């Protein structure tokens, strides 16, 4: 079973990535472009120029997982340039991205806080 918990971070490689790259090529991009450790048990997401294909790289226990998603008629929201380092999302925001939503524009209900007497 793949375990993604609350401590798992999601990093997007802004801009486009050559989708011919496999695990080793994407791991090299994680080091060179995202300046992160591909063995860190975090999720790294890459998108093609047409924004209809994603690859997700994840290291778990003793090997890499590589997921591939292709849309037939639509496009993913995708940042074209990183402003201050890699774009970081939560697992919830990754789910929104995979569902076709722009993570920065989705607004959930405000968190309810109560004062205890």
Q: What key phrases describe this protein's structure?
A:
single chain; 117 residues; alpha+beta; five-stranded mixed beta sheet; 5 strands; 15% helix
Structure description:
The protein is α+β, with helices and mostly antiparallel strands and 117 residues long. The protein contains two helices and five strands; from the N terminus they run βαββββα. The chain has a five-stranded mixed beta sheet. The longest helix has 10 residues, at 23-32. The protein is globular and about 60 Å long. It starts with 9 loop residues before the first strand and ends in a 19-residue tail after the last helix.
Short description:
The chain is 15% helix and 23% strand. The chain has 117 residues and is α+β, with helices and mostly antiparallel strands.
Please describe the biggest sheet, giving its number of strands, its sense, and whether it closes into a barrel. Answer: 5 strands, mixed
Order of SSEs: EHEEEEH
Determine the number of helices (DSSP H or I, runs of at least 4 residues).
2
Number of domains: 1
The SS-based structural class is: alpha+beta
Radius of gyration: 16 Å
User: Helical amount among residues, as a percent range?
Assistant: 10-25%
Residue-averaged pLDDT:
88
| Terminal CA distance | 44 Å
Number of strands: 5
| Poorly predicted spans | none
What overall form do the CA principal axes indicate?
globular
Strand content: 15-25%
Strand order of the largest sheet: 4-3-2-1-5
């Amino acid at each position: 079973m793949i375990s993604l918990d609350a401590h798992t971070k999601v990093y997007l490689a802004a801009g486009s990535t050559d989708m011919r790259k496999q695990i080793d090529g994407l791991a090299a991009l994680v080091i060179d472009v995202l300046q992160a450790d591909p063995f860190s048990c975090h999720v790294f997401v890459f998108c093609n120029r047409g924004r209809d294909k994603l690859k997700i790289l994840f290291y778990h226990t003793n090997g890499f997982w590589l997921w591939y998603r292709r849309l037939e008629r639509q496009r993913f929201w995708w940042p074209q340039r990183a402003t201050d380092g890699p774009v970081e999302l939560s697992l919830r925001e990754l789910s929104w991205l995979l569902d076709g939503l722009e993570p920065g524009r989705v607004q959930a209900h405000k968190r309810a806080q109560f004062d205890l007497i």
